[in-house]
Amino acid sequence: MTEWDIRKLQILRTLSERGTVTATAEVLRMTPSAVSQQLSNLAKQLGVPLLVAHGRRVRLTDAAHLVLRHAEAVFAQLERADAELAGYLQGEAGEVRVGAFSTAVPALVVPAVAALRRSHPAVEVRIREAEAAEAYELLSGGDVDLAISLAAHAPTARDPRFTRLPLLADPLDVALPAGHPLAAAEGLRLADLSGEAWIFGGSGPWSEITTAACEAAGFVPEQAHSAAGWTAILAMVEAEMGVALVPRMAVGGERRPGVVTRVLSADQPQRHVIAAVRRGAEGGTAVGRVLDALREVAGDRGGHP
Question: Which one of 60, 124, 281, 304 has the minimum C-beta count within 10 Å?
Answer without folding.
Answer: 304
